[in-house]
Protein: Alcohol dehydrogenase-like C-terminal domain-containing protein
Organism: Elsinoe batatas
Amino acid sequence: MTTTRREWDERVADLVVNPVEVKVAEECKRLTEGKGVDVVFDAAGVERALKDGVETLRYGGTYVNVAGWETPFAIPWFPFMLKDMKVQGSMAYNDQDFAETVKAYAEGKFVVEKGFEELITNKDNHIKIMISPD
């Protein structure tokens, strides 16, 4: 977690836990007096984050995957069953949104090269780039 990203996270979140500095599940259990958290949003897409997320959730909690996974692996289903947890996935857009975006790009309504260049050369300053077809 870069300093820039941490500063951003601290502005928009009540609490930021850096998995490099602390054991996430232990810290969340401590902060919730052993109950666990209601919802985990996994944006990392790595096995360790999924395992930490599952361990962090309370009974009946919800694990939401918003990450793109590069490497397949076996999901540990038993903890989900044992703690009656829910699993949900989200891409933050639907097929119609995607089709409209591709059409707008093809029609030249926005140029993405500047945004891509900015993400590549100044990645510590950005999480995502918002493109507006104005």
